[in-house]
Amino acid sequence: MTSRPNILFIAADDLNGWIGALGRHPQVRTPNIDRLARRGTMFSKAYCNAPYCNSSRMAVFTGKLPATSGIYHDEPYWTLNPRPPTYIERLRAAGYHCEGAGKVFHGVFDYPGAGRNRSREAVWYEKHAHEQIWDRFHSPVSEPLPPARPLNSMFDFSRPGSVDAWNWHFDWGILPDEQEAQMPDSITADRLTAFLADPPAGKPFFAAAGFYKPHLPWYVPKRFFDLYPLDEVVLPVILETDLDDVPDIARRWALTPNDHENVTKAGQWRHAVQGYLAAISYSDAQIGRLLDALDASPAHRDTLVVLWGDNGFHLGEKLHWRKFVLWEEATLVPLVMSGPGLGARRVDTPVGLVDLFPTLFELCGLPHLPDTDGRSLLPLVTGAADARPAVTTWHKGNHSIRFGSWRYTRYEDGSEELYDQACDPLEWTNLAGQAAHSGTLEQGRALLHAAVPAG
Fold first, then answer.
1. Residue 53: active-site member
2. Which of 114, 232, 426, 438 is the most exposed place for a label (fewest CB within 10 A)?
3. Which of 8, 43, 2 is nearest to 289 (CA)?
4. Which member of 25, 48, 53, 130 is catalytic?
5. What is the CA radius of gyration of the chain?
6. On the CB side of 58, how many CA atoms lie within 13 Å of its CA?
7. Could you give the dihedral angle defined by the CA atoms of residues 338, 339, 341 and 343, in that order, rounded to the nearest 10 degrees?
8. Are 73 and 395 in contact (CB under 8 A)?
9. Which residues in the chain show pLDDT less than 50?
10. Is the pTM of this model over 0.70?
11. Residue 395 known to be catalytic
């Protein structure tokens, strides 16, 4: 058993493509993620299978697309009888010690409760109990919050009835330095660095670190904000008429809530982008702590490292904020793997996160699980032509696929989008209604039907 590689598994919540190695924002500072990318395989076009925490993570841990599992949002999984096993349970059955900390599966902090009570901390709520599948798991407890919230002054927390549920955490600003050690991600890094310093003897390990940032709210210490002087922050490029050629359902998703109008009217766009960048750099610092601990660990030569984001994030692109849509910024995520069997290379073929564990299992010499939608990415890593579309689903019947340079999307009402990333990376022009692209539209329809035949 000890001949099998260990796995250090790092998930970052709401981390979009803004990492230095991908070059999608000119100012972002992610030196630790970038060093991992330099020594490993970076998938430059990796896509989540759902633009929402729970459904994305369950696709990863079960190897089943939302249309297969029925987990489109917060549908139950752990109480199913029978319940298909997760990859973590398969690893334990294969002799792995499974250690975890932080937000690995889905959970939330109670920001509405903290806002209504004017509390200085938000208590963690585990959406789905899963501790029984681990050898040891360290769940978050609470998140420290700055006083005088909201720091962006966009809402009035003293009038709870005036604050919608999704706005209690739509905030950004400086967290006092003395609270950094109590931040959930700092504690997660503490737990895993201690584990890596003294891993269990005689068996391989799977160690999962679930970092919450850069999930909202973007409260991080001042030194991370100082990396991005406010008057120098580069904003996303937008087109004011961007939603004129998208289906009604996409427009409704983009404008509910109408964050972009609210943020720009409040003069907070630059502050918000600064906050997101600062939160990314804070998360990168915690990732760096793990990489340093692994490098100093007796297990460093025999450990696979995988870093991934569970979904992307909009900060004004297509006049939208947050995730919950089927466009590039909400679906593109970092995916980097390094360690035994992987070299320093870049793969530019679109891939989906559902393929993450099948790749790890092949690298570990473990049998593939039956009845899953994922498959190993190793043929792509070795240069073989093994391309297939990456599928993202948001609610039942709404799917988007990335194939080659194209994105094709079909909504539950039959409306469609088609974008050519090669000449329109910001997805400003929907080509679905143009006769000149009817052939590509038909190709997208056929690929989607093959990938998700049930619709």
1. yes
2. 232
3. 8
4. 53
5. 21
6. 28
7. 50
8. yes
9. 1
10. yes
11. no
